[in-house]
Here is the input.
Amino acid sequence: MMKRVLLALALAVATGAAFAQAGKTEVLWLGQAAFRITTPGGKVIMIDPWMRTNPKTPANFKDLHAVGKIDLILVTHAPFDHFADAADLAKLNDAPMLTGAGLGNTVATLGILPTKLAPRFGKSGTVMPFAPNGVKITATHAEHSSELVWKNPATGKNETHFGGEPVGYVLEMENGFKIYHMGDTGLFGDMGLIGEIYKPDLVLMPIGGHFTIGPVDAALATNRFLKPRFVIPMHYGTFPVLAGTPEEYIKALGNTSTRVIVLQPGEKVEF
Here is the structure.
């Protein structure tokens, strides 16, 4: 099984040569759903940053300075394992944290971030945050929940606040390469529309189960709905309940044209 995974990684890098002619996309996984994506045009986008208390993030990335300069932060939904380091990373880099309208409103209302660093948009909305011909980012549906647990500095007590609705993101690079970060999600039929409309080349797919799709449902989403060229599994193994494994996912995929790239936290791949 591991030989198959390593072969998939080698093939993915080789197949990415076609995109490399117009610049490379670098994808660094930092554990759970946290990814740093460097676009062919040199923009750096952090998705769902949770590193400092993430047990799977390598020690050398526990310091937020270690991820380097960040141009934009995307947050799929409010729980700590997706949001925990987002506000501090935004302030450190003076970089906007782009998220769904509900979570953005709550973050600004509570004073977690100033409004200028908490821009908002909604599902099926597309933004181009850098330039008219730059990266396109589209928010998609995700089948999950989104509650923000916030410690009130005045009382020292945790409060649960409205976190809007969860989303996924499709990122289209300057050279046309498309990445679909699914966020946390259950299986839903309109994944087929996402596959049909956006045709992602790479899917960052949760496989852990319990809070998200597990290996079998992830395989169904891959083969029936999305049919990407590449998948990087995520959101597994961080806690015991996230028990799904890449090996189970690859087995459930069966005979498929999708190449599975299994990264360890701190590893990166180029396309």
The longest helix spans residues 2-15. Residues 1-21 have pLDDT under 50 and may be disordered.
